[in-house]
Design a protein that fits this description.
GO terms for molecular function: protein serine/threonine kinase activity. Keywords: Kinase, Serine/threonine-protein kinase, Transferase. This is Histidine kinase domain-containing regulator protein. By secondary structure, this protein is an alpha+beta fold. The chain has one domain: Histidine kinase-like ATPase, C-terminal domain (Heat Shock Protein 90, 2-Layer Sandwich). The chain is 28% helix and 23% strand. It has a six-stranded antiparallel sheet with strand order 1-2-3-4-6-5, covered by helices on one side. Helix 1 packs antiparallel against helix 2 and helix 2 packs antiparallel against helix 3. The longest helix has 24 residues. The N terminus is likely disordered.
Length: 165
Amino acid sequence: MMSTTRPYSPGDRDPEPDVEPGGEAEVPTGRQVRRLSFEGESGVVPLARDFTRQALYAWGWLPAASADQRAAAKHVLLVVSELVTNACLHAEGPDQLGISCDNKVIRVEVSDRGSGQPAPRTPHRAGRPGGHGMFIVQRLCLDWGVVRAPGLTGKTVWAELGAPA
């Protein structure tokens, strides 16, 4: 799977409507959205995982009824951890986590103020510590990319995962 810099994957919808941090919205397409602001927060990786886990319960991904559903939920939590950790290590920390879900796809978005461009480390060396985050994201996700707002510092790294069968 190749990384992309498309703001949205093929056939994706318009950007999601604004929702209060920690809030949820039901949009006309049946897509549910939750956002978490990290402003003034510490321990952002566990905070992001807990927030995501609560969303997965609310959206019926958890508790998992099968091994496939359990694996899908674990993959979402791992991708959230990797994207938030990357923002901590390479971009002065994350500003916001957004997760949205319809019946087929869950989308994770992590916004930060960093100028760097995330990419899987090439060549990937499985036996060496560090540098595996975007490789993991690339392997687990249907697609991922980076969105930059013209004239603003920072970016949003997004990743999409398929819903369990």
